[in-house]
Amino acid sequence: MLFSKSADLPTADTALPGRDQPLTTDEVHFVSGRPLKGPHPEGFQSAVFGMGCFWGVERVFWQLPGVWVTSVGYAGGITPNPTYEEVCTGRTGHTEAVEVVFNPEEITYDDLLKAFWENHDPTQGMRQGGDTGTQYRSAIYYADDAQKAAAEASRDAYAAALKRVGMGPITTEIAPRPTYYFAEPITRAIWPRIPRAIAASEARVWPVPSASAWTPDRGPGGGEAVLPGPAGGDAGSPVRRRPRRLQGGRQDVRHHGRHGRPVVQGLGHRL
Q1: Which of the two residues, 15 and 209, has the higher pLDDT score?
Q2: Of these residues, 36, 51, 53, 78, which one is catalytic?
Q3: pTM of the full structure
């Protein structure tokens, strides 16, 4: 890295200066071939999430039916047009983020929120598993009032459910969508090349309450969200799922920590 890493969010005075000109980035997605920056089909919407290392997070979303294209980038900070190395110092204020462009007639924003909550631990503050730093914080950046309301309602339902099974408070940042800076091509190419050696043997997930529970007058028990447990089990234990094999013999890993130690996040949807 070029700079020492900070565990605190920078101020306007301490943030790295960045640059005026955008970085050179890919124009199309390296898997789907669809344009990353548009134009996108009429009526499609977008969402931006931060949930840890974006190399694996992006793959959670691009395989969901109804998702048109995904990208990785940086959001929520101060430094304009940052590089990956700058973001990793913690001195830009950005979190690693994923933009999801989707067809609302095929997949809803609530569906994306379910994938968001189930595929990382939103109670860990400025880290995810073995990766620590402000760039790994959990975040939802909403595009309009409808996304804001859905994000906050889903957070409240999930927080209440997690509390009943002894989990800590949710630390996810929910804020208006800031400028989203597309990441450099090298970052977009890393995930499919992660070697099998760092794959983990299993994953954990806390299921998210049904979206119907996010509306007070529709939730079970007079609006109280219930955290569903595994089939035939209770809500006191996480669901365990083994990663599926990918082409080339790799296992499906959501996230990896430093020094090659696997830190697997929950798999909320079958891939």
Answers
A1: 15
A2: 53
A3: 0.76
